[in-house]
Structures are given as structure tokens and as C-alpha cells.
Design brief:
The chain is α/β, with parallel strands linked by helices. Helix content is 29%, strand content 15%. Strands 25-24-23-20-26-27-28 form a seven-stranded mixed sheet. Strands 5-4-3-6-7 form a five-stranded parallel sheet, sandwiched between helices. The structure holds 3-isopropylmalic acid and iron/sulfur cluster (SF4). GO terms for molecular function: 3-isopropylmalate dehydratase activity; 4 iron, 4 sulfur cluster binding; metal ion binding. Pathway: Amino-acid biosynthesis; L-leucine biosynthesis; L-leucine from 3-methyl-2-oxobutanoate: step 2/4. Belongs to the aconitase/IPM isomerase family.
Length: 783
């Protein structure tokens, strides 16, 4: 008998397959998670849920926590503790809550006095916490960064954070396979950021929806790990849940000596490398979507609009929306130009900027800082630039940069040299743009209000942002005199280390920019009016969500494509530690013209839509961007239990179900138009979930809809899926035994006892009496 041929697998298929704990007939999969990163914004409600239900963290040894989004980036010289250091109330509460939770649940935590603190996606790789072939999650959409190691890494919402904390598993489905192959050689001045901006321009922000992107080709192979991270980081901006690069010698080299990687040279290291080498797509593996990019088509790229797909070569001009293909695109383009304060036809190089931000989980690593420093060295920040900031991604990046004298290069040029954190990438801390200020930014999102209410963001690479700082305008780094670009900016050699170590703290302490703090806070910045826990029923296993069967109500019509979660709920409202009370903040920027002043044109401010229970949006890709579960919480709190749209971003889609809400994708335009017409007419519609039908107010069917069996079952019965997963304890425990045998390096192994990195913990994890995994005496609790 001929041996049946094995179906060729992609890298994604292999990693996914290796983590399946259980598979249901409808394709719902219980996936084991090896690595869980936790930050202060998306975890408080998850820990609260655990506590209410009397649950423990299953694998404290596979969980790593830090504070990054809310932390000030001012000098920490006078830091005593986080409670006295953070001035803004809500930010402080979130950070203090995380510290309490890590103590309560016995987790490893890098606090502000620890050099290893930093942006969650910088510290994971830096510590070797992220390893090839692992599954990595975090309540943060840019978890895709970690895919650079050949890990399957993706962002999750807070309910899923709770699910992973309790069970170390996630309920999921297989994604599509997408491949982006970039061949050739990058020209001088072109870096990995340009590669990914170019790719997103090509595929669009919904291009990767439902897919995991594998990046391959000679360009990707030639890039450093940090450059690969910048590319995978922005997979989410292309709509994909995750991005991956097959591990190779560059990966192994990077991991050598990392504190949490298997010890280099040991038997375990050899075993791990042998396994990691198997993690590549089979030659004849099939992809659902294939994209080819020729490196010679990529030039330094910048964004002009308010979506990451709005890219243009720096040599180009501001596009004219009147040339866009559809009426909807024209309208969106006009709005963007108005928001951005731009006129069609203006050469990009003539756009004057006010601020420069070099940082974020996309571009705050040592190679980014080295590349920017090469551009800046010996020059001065232009006089029109109000503020140019360098925010290293972690304390260790900062320390390394100072060893190399980069801080001095930046300070001499007139940049600020800050402490690690997310900073002006989204401005949950005091680092924000003032209204109408224009920023050259190395971050990843240019959504309206992203860096501060009415702020204007242009995304670009670190060398391009450095060039903008020097010239005072968006600039083509290739034209700067003395700029000697190398084909791979990422591989550029650091400036000579200077003997004298610059000290910047004095300067920063007197920095009156701090006073800008919170100018974009709405008057009512603590919108929690109702402190009850939405999922209070979660206390009883497998119970707790309101049942969803038939929903009848007014539907509010919307038309915009790519309604992002920053628009659904802006960052200043993410500081709550509750799931409730966010209804007032829903669509904040669109809904109010000033704090408390309603915009009469916005649909939810008009009758009968003030009472809408449903939203019908004709624009695709609803809920794109950040993983914030605050988006469905805000909709829910307002009273909206269902959103109908042509398509949804994956994380928002998932998050909705976890809150007993029903997102309905309707691809057929005629069907959607019929439902939309009822909404426009202000008539009620009825969503009949058991029969999967949408009806008009008189009970006539408008159209049918699809919903996955398992999700429907949970909604109709109001089931809490954590309880359901915990019933599979035997399977999970068996899977863990197999993992410990086959990949023993993934079990936590006394990290805190290894003092190699010299860092000290601000908060010592307290002993954990009992975990969900079993007996505390027989299992490792800490790294
Ligand atoms: C706060 C968090 C939910 C969010 C994300 O998921 O991306 C943030 O990191 C962002 O960049 O908007
Ligand atoms: S995208 Fe910005 S806010 Fe989000 S994790 Fe990265 S640095 Fe932080």
C-alpha cells in the first residue's frame, strides 16, 4: 500500500498544529498558549474576573507583566514607587492595580525601577521570552511583533486575557495562509519600515483579514531580527492577526545568551535549535493569498492620511481624493485631507512638521536608534520643531544606547532623551500632540486623534523621522548631505561610543512640556458611572453572560469604511479598570464637538438613533486597529448589542462575542443595502439568532446570516467559555505533560534566581498558594 502523502504545511500550519489541545467538529479549536505578556491597560478587568470566579493563574511561569502605556517617560531618578510617581489619577490606578495583581497572582513583573521594564513587545524578545515555534499572546494588537521569531503571536481582548490566565488556552479557529514575498535588494535609505508601509499600501488595511501573513523572500532573509520585528509588528495594520518569519541563523544568533532562551551550548539549546530548524514552510505548501513585492519598487515611504494604508513615496504629492475610484473613497479622502490640513498636489517634502517622535513598539530598538543617530550626528533639530523625542523601547535599550553614546548625539542635536514606554505612540501618558500639531512619527497608527485629539500623524521610518527633525519638514533622507545610507539601515554600524556619558535627566526635569499633560482629556475623563461588573455572573463557572436570542430595536446607519477602535473609543477612556460605564465615551471624537457639546450631525445624537440597539455599517473592516475590548464594552454600555457590516477586523469580532454581542458580517451588497435602508428610515429591525435571520419591523425577512455553531451556542445559552474550557482539564494537563517532554525549555525555570541582568524587581511576587495547574510544590512558579 502506498504511504499516504502528508499535506504540505506552511510555517503557520506547523506551529498551529503543534498547539492543538482539542478540536471540535465545527473547527473550533482549543489552542495551547506558551507565552503570555501582560500590561496594565488590558488586564485589570481580566484579573478582576479571575478573582470574582475564585480562579488562579494557571501558568505564572509562562506569564510576564510590565507597565508601558501609562508610564511617564520623564527621569526616574527620584522614583520611589509607582503610586507617587504617576501624577494622573486614572493612569496611576491602572499601574498600581497591575502591581497589586502581580503580587496577588504571583507573576513575574518588570516595574519602573527595573531596567528590564519597557514596551511589552520590546521586552519579550529582549529577554528571550519569545521563542521560535511558540504561541504568544498579549492583550495588545501589536503582539504580531513576536512573529519575527517564527512564533504564532497575536493580540487578544481582555476576556481572552482572562481565559488564558485561567486556562493557558484560547478558543480559536484556523486562519487563512497569506504570503508576502519581498525579493531583491533594498536601496540605500530604504528600511524595513518602508517595506511594511509599502506592503500595507498595496494590500490595504483589510488585506490580511482572517489571515496570518508569512513574510519571506531574499529581502526578509537579509534583515536583522529587529527589522523583521518592525515588519511583523505592523501585520495588524494590514488586517492580519499575525505575521511570521521562518527562524534561521539570524534568529538563533539573536537568541544566544538571552536570559530566558535555552542556555547557549547546552544540550537543551541544541535540541531547541534542531526543532526550530524544522519550522519552515514545506516547498509545495499552499497559500490562500500570495503577494509579491520587488524591492526596487520600494522607496522611503510616508503616510498622508488617517489610515496606515494611505501611503505615498516621499517623492510624491498629496493625492487628490477626486481621483479615487468610488464615491465612498472620495468622501473618506476629503475628510482625511481636511483632518490632516493638507491640500491635494502639495509635494510631501514641503509639509512642515511640529513634532518628531522616534519610539514605539515598531521602532524603538537599538538598531532604530543607531540608524536615526547616524542621520542626526553633528546636526541640529530645525528651529520650527517644537519638540523632538527619542523614547527607547526598554530600559535595556536605553542603557545600551547610552553605552554607545547615542544619547549624546541626540541631545547635542536638540532631541529629548526619555525613559522607556509607549509614550506618544498613543499618548496615554503625558506625551501628546496638541490639536492640529503635525508629527513625524515612527509609530504604527495615524488614526484621527491617535497621538492627541486633532493631532496629525505621518508614519515613517526612524531615519526619515530623523531627517524630518533636521529639516523641519517631511524629508527624503537620501537627500541629506553627508547621509551615507547603507542598503540595510538596520545593519548600520553604531556611531563611535563616546567616553563621556551624557546626562539628560536635569534637562528633562526642567522640561515644561510635561505641563501639556492631558490637554486632550475630555472634561469627564472618568466616565465610569456604573461600577457593576458586567460579567459578574462569571463567578459561577460556565455562566454569566446575558443570553442573546432575538434582538429587536432601532438600527443606526453608518457608512464609513475602516471604523477603527481608536474612533470607537479613544485612548483617554482606556484608563478605566471596569468593563462598564463607557457608553458616554462611545465614538467620542465624532459625537462631541467639545466636552459635553454634541455634534448634531452624528447619527447617535439624532432621533430615533439615540436609542439604537444595532449599528448597520455599509463600510467594510469595522473595528480595525487596536485590540481594546473597551470598544465592544462602550457599544454595549450605550445599548448596542449587534453590529452589522460587510466585514470586521478579527480581534473586534472575537471581543464582541465574549461580551454577549453579535457582530454579523453580510457580504452580499443587496442584502446589506436592504437592512441599511430600514436603518436609514428609522424603523426597527429584528435579529433572530436561533433562525439566523434579519427581519423588518413587520416580521418580513430581509436576509439570512451566518454564524459559527460554537459561538451561537454560547450566545444563545449565555455561556462563559472559561468555564467550558476548564472542563477540559484532563486534555490540557496531558498536553502540558507532552510539551514538558518535547520542548522542556518552555517551562519556567527559576528566572528570578538568576541575577544575570542585574535588574531588581520592584515588586517581589508573593508565593502562590495554589494554581489552576495543580500542586504548587511540584511546579515552578517563577522564571
Ligand atoms: C492598549 C491596547 C489595547 C492597544 C492595542 O491593542 O493596540 C494599544 O497598544 C494601541 O496601540 O492602540
Ligand atoms: S502600538 Fe504604541 S501603544 Fe500600542 S503597544 Fe505599541 S508602543 Fe504601545
Amino acid at each position: 500500500m502506498p504511504v499516504a502523502e502528508r499535506t504540505p504545511q506552511t510555517l503557520y500550519d506547523k506551529v498551529f498544529q503543534a498547539h492543538i489541545v482539542d478540536e471540535k467538529l465545527d473547527g473550533t479549536i482549543l489552542l495551547y498558549i506558551d507565552r503570555h505578556l501582560v500590561h496594565e491597560v488590558t488586564s485589570p478587568q481580566a484579573f478582576e474576573g479571575l478573582e470574582v470566579a475564585g480562579r488562579k493563574v494557571r501558568r505564572p511561569d509562562c506569564t510576564l507583566a510590565t507597565t508601558d502605556h501609562n508610564v511617564p517617560t520623564t527621569s526616574r531618578k527620584a522614583l520611589k514607587d509607582i503610586a507617587s510617581f504617576i501624577q494622573e489619577d486614572d493612569s496611576r490606578t491602572q499601574c498600581v492595580t497591575l502591581e497589586e495583581n502581580v503580587k496577588k497572582f504571583g507573576l513575574t513583573y518588570f516595574g519602573l525601577s527595573d531596567k528590564r521594564q519597557g514596551i511589552v513587545h520590546v521586552i519579550g524578545p529582549e529577554q528571550g521570552f519569545t521563542l521560535p515555534g511558540t504561541t504568544v499572546v498579549c492583550g495588545d494588537s501589536h503582539t504580531s511583533t513576536h512573529g519575527a521569531f517564527g512564533a504564532l503571536a497575536f493580540g487578544i481582548g481582555t476576556s481572552e486575557v482572562e481565559h488564558v490566565l485561567a486556562t493557558q488556552c484560547l478558543i480559536t479557529k484556523r486562519s487563512k495562509n497569506m504570503r508576502i514575498q519581498v525579493d531583491g535588494e533594498l536601496a540605500p535609505g530604504v528600511s524595513s519600515k518602508d517595506v511594511i508601509l509599502h506592503a500595507i499600501g498595496k494590500i490595504g488595511t483589510a488585506g490580511g483579514t482572517g489571515a496570518v501573513i508569512e513574510f519571506c523572500g531574499s529581502v526578509i532573509r537579509s534583515l536583522s531580527m529587529e527589522a523583521r520585528m518592525s515588519i511583523c509588528n505592523m501585520s495588524i495594520e494590514g488586517g492580519a492577526r499575525a505575521g511570521m518569519v521562518a527562524p534561521d541563523e539570524t534568529t538563533f544568533e539573536y537568541l544566544k545568551g538571552k536570559p530566558l532562551a535555552p542556555k547557549y551550548g547546552s544540550e537543551e539549546w541544541e535540541k531547541a535549535v534542531a526543532y526550530w530548524k524544522s519550522l519552515r514552510s514545506d516547498p509545495d505548501a499552499k497559500y490562500d493569498i500570495d503577494v509579491f513585492i520587488d524591492a526596487k519598487d520600494i522607496v522611503p515611504t510616508v503616510t498622508w492620511g488617517t489610515s496606515p494604508e494611505d501611503v505615498v513615496p516621499i517623492t510624491g504629492v498629496v493625492p487628490d481624493p477626486e481621483t479615487f475610484p468610488t464615491e465612498a473613497k472620495k468622501a473618506a479622502g476629503r475628510r482625511m485631507l481636511e483632518y490632516m490640513g493638507l491640500v491635494p498636489g502639495t509635494p510631501m517634502e514641503e509639509i512642515v512638521v511640529d513634532k518628531v517622535f522616534i519610539g514605539s513598539c515598531t521602532n524603538s530598538r537599538i538598531e532604530d536608534l543607531r540608524a536615526a543617530a547616524r542621520v542626526v550626528k553633528g546636526k541640529k533639530v530645525a528651529s520650527n520643531i517644537k519638540r523632538a523625542m527619542i523614547v527607547p523601547g526598554s530600559g535595556l535599550v536605553k542603557e545600551q544606547a547610552e553605552r554607545e553614546g547615542l544619547d549624546k548625539v541626540f541631545l547635542d542635536a536638540g532631541f529629548e532623551w526619555r525613559e522607556a514606554g509607549c509614550s506618544m505612540c498613543l499618548g496615554m501618558n503625558p506625551d501628546i500632540l496638541s490639536p492640529k500639531e503635525r508629527c513625524a512619527s515612527t509609530s504604527n497608527r495615524n488614526f484621527e486623534g491617535r497621538q492627541g485629539a486633532q493631532g496629525r500623524t505621518h508614519l515613517m521610518s526612524p531615519v526619515m523621522a530623523a531627517a524630518a527633525a533636521i529639516t523641519g519638514k517631511l524629508a527624503d533622507v537620501r537627500k541629506l548631505s553627508q547621509y551615507n545610507g547603507s542598503p540595510h539601515i538596520e545593519a548600520a554600524i553604531a556611531p563611535e561610543p563616546t567616553a563621556e556619558k551624557a546626562h539628560v535627566d536635569e534637562r528633562i526635569e526642567t522640561d515644561d512640556h510635561e505641563k501639556e499633560a492631558l490637554t486632550d482629556q475630555p472634561e469627564d475623563s472618568s466616565p465610569q458611572v456604573n461600577t457593576s461588573v458586567l460579567r459578574s455572573g462569571a463567578a459561577s463557572a460556565a455562566g454569566g453572560l446575558p443570553k442573546f436570542t432575538v434582538l429587536k430595536g432601532i438600527a443606526a446607519p453608518m457608512e464609513k469604511p475602516n471604523i477603527d477602535t481608536d474612533a470607537i473609543i479613544p485612548k483617554q477612556f482606556l484608563k478605566t479598570i471596569k468593563r462598564t460605564g463607557l457608553g458616554n465615551a462611545l465614538f467620542y471624537e465624532m459625537r462631541y464637538t467639545a466636552p459635553g457639546v454634541e455634534n448634531p450631525d452624528f447619527v447617535l445624537n439624532r432621533e430615533p438613533y439615540r436609542k439604537a440597539k444595532i449599528i448597520v455599517c455599509t463600510g467594510p473592516n469595522f473595528g480595525c486597529g487596536s485590540s481594546r475590548e473597551h470598544a465592544p464594552w462602550a457599544l454595549n454600555d450605550f445599548g448596542v448589542r449587534s453590529v452589522i457590516a460587510p466585514s470586521f477586523a478579527d480581534i473586534f469580532f472575537n471581543n464582541s462575542f465574549k461580551n454577549g454581542m453579535l457582530p454579523i458580517p453580510i457580504k452580499n451588497k443587496a442584502d446589506l443595502d436592504r437592512v441599511h435602508a430600514e436603518a436609514v428610515a428609522g424603523r426597527e429591525i429584528e435579529i433572530d439568532l436561533p433562525n439566523q435571520l434579519i427581519k423588518d419591523a413587520d416580521g418580513n425577512t430581509l436576509c439570512a446570516f451566518e454564524v459559527e455553531e460554537f459561538r451561537k451556542h454560547c450566545l444563545v445559552n449565555g455561556l462563559d467559555d472559561i468555564g467550558l474550557t476548564m472542563q477540559l482539564e484532563d486534555k490540557i494537563a496531558e498536553f502540558e505533560r507532552k510539551m514538558s517532554r518535547e520542548t522542556p525549555w518552555l517551562d519556567g525555570s527559576g528566572y528570578l534566581k538568576r541575577k544575570g541582568m542585574g535588574g531588581k524587581l520592584a515588586v517581589k511576587p508573593a508565593p502562590v498558594p495554589k494554581t489552576n495547574r495543580g500542586d504548587v510544590k511540584t511546579e515552578p512558579l517563577e522564571w
